[in-house]
Amino acid sequence: MSLAGSESLADGRVIRWTFGSAANGNMSTSAPEDGLDDRRQRQQPGPWLWLRQVHGADVVDCTGASFCTADIASVVGTSADGSVTDRQGLVLAVQTADCCPVLLWSDEGIIGAVHAGWRGLV
């Protein structure tokens, strides 16, 4: 099961978001690679940026003219609990169990995805 939607920005660009569940298949970063990319692409097409979530305060910054799609491989799996980008088409992924997924965006087209534990929410 998925919950999906979109938000239109002032300049006409659209932010798409999806919250998935176990029914979408195992998306765990420790899952066997077999079929993982297919499951991800069915959930949300595009290059995925996932994190090694550590219940900390670090955020991966993928913004600015110097960041391009080829740079994703250099930040995938980084130990952090949030990511932010201004790149269209980049999928920011966080996983939760008893924590909260938080989606942030601005009218300037900067989006962020955060894995927030109870301490972070407080």
Describe this structure in words.
The model has no long low-confidence stretch (mean pLDDT about 85). The chain has three helices and eight strands. The protein has a four-stranded mixed beta sheet. With about 120 residues, the chain is α/β, with parallel strands linked by helices.
Oligomer: single chain
Averaged pLDDT: 86
Task: Report the count of strand segments.
Answer: 8
Output the helix-strand order: EEHEEHEEEEH
Strand order of the largest sheet: 4-5-8-7
Termini, distance in Å? 29 Å
Uncertain parts: none
Output the structural class. Answer: alpha/beta
Give the helix level as a range of percent.
10-25%
What is the tally of helical segments? Answer: 3
Silhouette: globular
What is this structure's SSE topology?
Blueprint: E1 2-8, E2 14-20, H1 36-43, E3 48-49, E4 59-62, H2 72-75, E5 82-85, E6 91-92, E7 100-105, E8 111-116, H3 118-121
Parallel strand pairs: 3-6, 4-5
Antiparallel strand pairs: 1-2, 5-8, 7-8
What is this structure, in a nutshell?
This protein is of the alpha/beta class and 122 residues long. It is built from three helices and eight strands.
Features:
8 strands; 31% strand; 122 residues; two-stranded antiparallel sheet; alpha/beta; four-stranded mixed sheet; globular; single chain
